[in-house]
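Hi both,

Apologies for the delay on this - the queue was longer than expected. I finally got the S-adenosylmethionine-bound model through. Below you'll find the protein sequence and the ligand SMILES exactly as submitted, and right after that the structure tokens for the full complex including the ligand.
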Amino acid sequence: MFKEILHRLQGRIPTLPSHAAYELWAGTYGEQQNNIFLQAEERALLPLLDEHPLTNQSVLDAGCGSGRHIRHCLDRHAMRIVGIDFSRAMLHRGAWASEQHPVSLVEGSVEMLPLRDSSFDLVLVPLVLGHVRNLRPAAAELTRVLKSGGRLLISDWHPENERRGWKRVFEVPFGEGRAGRFAVQHHFHETDEYLRCFESEGFLLEKRIEPAIDESMRKAFENNGMEKIYGKHLGSPLVLVLGFRKP
Ligand SMILES: C[S@@+](CC[C@H](N)C(=O)[O-])C[C@H]1O[C@@H](n2cnc3c(N)ncnc32)[C@H](O)[C@@H]1O
């Protein structure tokens, strides 16, 4: 039945609500080579992670997915890492992480975190908030669980991507070399909306980085068959990375 639906949908790109999308995407999530968005995001975010040692820090990875940033925090010897995600299938992808000593994985939403007040020194929210229609409940929850003096690092698709009409598309293989293509529902938030929302929670903006398409990404675009897009959008921002501190 499911295969039947996928067959019928092939050729169009339907948009799925984010929870349903990640439940479906989880099986292949993170397998794409040359993912230009992840490369751009890491180029901006990892130096921010490195600004302070994590050795005595308690870290929340909100919307941890397959645990990409949990791995980065493990590499930096974080004292305690909690990964939370609302998709069971994505948490399953991240299950490797729960076998590591300081990591625990929890099912839950960034809009209602099942976590104690003031329990983290560092909160990461990588490529997640675009899936949240209204930023305010998530911002209030992220503020609540962060200790005073703690850091909040957010990354997301850049609002420019919306203006270009780009979609977050993924493929689900369904046998005999065929695949269904879907877009994940994304609620674009302007940069000012992020700033207003988190500053009204009392956060101080420390970093704003907008990695753009540049020469170093040419190969990745070529390997994805996107040479034309590379030429057209060279110099345009791809990802928004914001670093805040809770006073
Ligand atoms: C693009 S993936 C990013 C995964 C990971 N943060 C990374 O950067 O590799 C978005 C993740 O956010 C999760 N997610 C989306 N909305 C969420 C919400 N409201 N609460 C918790 N997780 C959410 C999805 O299930 C998915 O795993």
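Main takeaway for now: The chain has eleven helices and ten strands.

I'll put the files on the shared drive as well.

H.
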